[in-house]
TrEMBL record:
Alphabetical list of SUPFAM superfamilies matching this protein: PLP-dependent transferases (SSF53383)
Required cofactor(s): pyridoxal 5'-phosphate
Keywords: Aminotransferase, Biotin biosynthesis, Cytoplasm, Pyridoxal phosphate, S-adenosyl-L-methionine, Transferase
UniProt similarity note: Belongs to the class-III pyridoxal-phosphate-dependent aminotransferase family. BioA subfamily.
Residues binding substrate, per UniProt: 60, 153, 288, 323, 418
Marked site (Participates in the substrate recognition with KAPA and in a stacking interaction with the adenine ring of SAM) residue numbers: 23
Function comment: Catalyzes the transfer of the alpha-amino group from S-adenosyl-L-methionine (SAM) to 7-keto-8-aminopelargonic acid (KAPA) to form 7,8-diaminopelargonic acid (DAPA). It is the only aminotransferase known to utilize SAM as an amino donor.
Predominant cellular place of this UniProt entry's protein: cytoplasm
Originating organism: Dyella ginsengisoli
Annotated metabolic or biological route of this protein: Cofactor biosynthesis; biotin biosynthesis; 7,8-diaminononanoate from 8-amino-7-oxononanoate (SAM route): step 1/1
Protein name: Adenosylmethionine-8-amino-7-oxononanoate aminotransferase
Amino acid sequence: MTTHDRSNRALAQRDLRHLWHPCTQMHDHERIPMVPIVRGEGAWLIDADGRRYLDGISSWWTNLFGHANPRIAAALADQARQLEHVIFAGFTHEPAIALAEELVRITPPGLDRVFLADNGSAAIEVALKMSFHYWLNQGHGEKTRFIALTGSYHGETLGALSVSDVALYRKTYAPLLLTPILAPSPDTYEGEPGETPQQLAARRLLELRALLEQHAHETCAVIVEPLVQCAGGMRMYHPDYLAGLRALCDEFDVHFIADEIAVGFGRTGTLFACEQADVSPDFLCLSKGLTAGFMALSAVLTTERVYEAFYAEYSAGKAFLHSHSYTGNPLACRVALETLAIFREEPVLERNRALAAHLAGRLAPLRDHPHVADVRQTGLIAAVELVADKATRRPFPAGERRGLEVYLHGLKHGALLRPLGNIVYFMPPYVTTTDELDHLVDTAVAGVERALRR
Ligand SMILES: Cc1ncc(COP(=O)(O)O)c(C=O)c1O
């Protein structure tokens, strides 16, 4: 094999010789193909042998307007010819300035300060540290803890993992982590029979109130994924929970951190999920769709009140300390600006709603399937929960890896589906057509049948 051989097989072999991939037991690649992608086009990924895969998960929930989107690519190329990077301490540039202005304009009211970082987990680290440091600067150094929801996922750096509750990612590293206070999730799948999502949200708020009564004095913030707990299994809940959470955070003097890294930028039907509860958090974490899947960038928006607690003479030692070399990277900021221009100029949310309605129609019949316990959807996130026993909702044992069968079936039939355990979900790019969605759903349904037959 020479390096001129650019077939799937040759590239996969070279990959496996030196690379170590995320979220992967590398031994699996003794039987699962490594897929070398050479090109993207709209919602499609194209491998080195010319096979096409419809990207049903928007490449880890990042892509909005298609792969290699020409408009965004042109902005990126233009920026690269002007300024690729500059230290972001003491120096600034117009793409970052304009991006901050635009983010302040489009996010819920009161979020007037923007701190940039370069990936989702880093944004969570920033929000956690900033919340803690705010209370410290206010003379409340006793506030050192965070409340997170059961089933939450906020990333995999040590701080972000600390406030996450998905055992797969957390368990091994638990001895290294902070201990969060876990509040029961308002996840509707966990509701009592006959309980509406609203009633469940109200019950979960009472439980949160009890936790705050006990722990508010030592708590910096409550952190949640608004409306959909994505990596925890696309678990969804009623917006009332967010409204109630805002009120409780005000009452008990703790911050509200909204992690919209996965759900922001139109995923849930509104530009930001918090809009559906008409609330502004104290910290809003954004990434993924911020650059439509082009560049690593994240932003934490917060209030002037938080900012002012850090604003003092240098000698007071109150400055926020958190820096990444690539903070405020001009290429990423310019790409984000172009992404937001598309939101301004095109009817993105209307299109998404139509697409979401089509998806809902296609998934509805699955509710009657003997191994489907739940079909749920919020905007352009839809999930189908497979179970061994529908009546008791007994799950298939994780070790059976039924979802992997769906993944493998998808690869064979031109679709990138990547179930979370037994949960088959759809989170397509916004440019996906209804015909393409049909292909995705048909492939998933056939994959599920195959996985159930094993
Ligand atoms: C809600 C949420 N928060 C944080 C993260 C972490 O982002 P990143 O993978 O960019 O570190 C993710 C990633 O999936 C996420 O879904």
